[in-house]
Amino acid sequence: YKFCGRGLSKYLSWISKIQVNQPAVLRRAEQIQARRTVKKEWQAAWLLKAVTFIDLTTLSGDDTPSNIQRLCYKAKYPIREDLLKALNMHDKDITTAAVCVYPARVCDAVKALKAAGCSIPVASVATGFPAGQTHLKTRLEEIRLAVEDGATEIDVVINRSLVLTGQWEALYDEIRQFRKACGEAHLKTILATGELGSLTNVYKASMIAMMAGSDFIKTSTGKETVNATFPVAIVMLRAIRDFFWKTGNKVGFKPAGGIRSAKDSLAWLSLVKEELGDEWLKPELFRIGASTLLSDIERQIYHHVTGRYAAYHDLPMS
């Protein structure tokens, strides 16, 4: 579905008039947080499902080839095999959805996954992550280099100043160039919602990102003061739904930043199920960006199987 010329102007004019009803969004967010979660075997099943949506992430200044190797091994074997056997899930090939690293570490991740004999995708952040405050030429080159090194998914950050100053066409043009630089790789566009100023801007930026060809829209870099929150997620999910109704195109959703507990992951799964339906509950359309979440999910599954909580040394490091 192409947006260009007159069609683009019409949509940009429509987008500029949009207003989000903030009190209604906050009421809906409160409902989600107040809801009781699933229990017992249903909880274990949902948690295993959540594992398959995780983009297992390390974005630290002290990342080394050995860190990346360990991350990739954990992505292939996210839950201890004896626990999976106890749940009769050992033959279901449960892995995380992807591993996510800095561009300079893509080669290490590709090599480690190849050595482990698995085809888990490698995602790379790019475009001056996390601030996006570098020259456009540099940002585009960063995408191309990550793809050359073997990344099949690119998590780009938008230029927040274009949102804050209402330059929607310029934002559209930049993301179109990101899309072109990605080639065959999937484009996941990080909106950095904690820095966009309002829920109305979150909706508008979501729409522009999808119009420009994003395969996913993502809440945050994980480096902002405010990361993935339910009010922001509701606005982004409604934008995805509106875009689907207008164009027939399904765009994925990725919350990231601050999602650390198994209980959190269940709330995110149920929110996506309610807002977009079961067809979005698959790795092609839903991801969770997280680094410590997997450890807590494995801990909860250990508790479900054994009836006691794991000691620190009982579970492998992620």
UniProtKB/TrEMBL annotation:
Keywords: Cytoplasm, Lyase, Nucleus, Schiff base. It is found in: Cytoplasmic granule; Nucleus. The active site is at 218 (schiff-base intermediate with acetaldehyde), 254 (proton donor/acceptor). This is Deoxyribose-phosphate aldolase. SUPFAM superfamilies: Aldolase (SSF51569). SMART domains: DeoC (SM01133). It catalyses: 2-deoxy-D-ribose 5-phosphate = D-glyceraldehyde 3-phosphate + acetaldehyde. Belongs to the DeoC/FbaB aldolase family. DeoC type 2 subfamily. Signal peptide: none annotated. Its EC number is 4.1.2.4. InterPro entries: Aldolase_TIM (IPR013785), DeoC (IPR011343), DeoC/FbaB/LacD_aldolase (IPR002915). It comes from Cebus imitator. The gene is DERA.
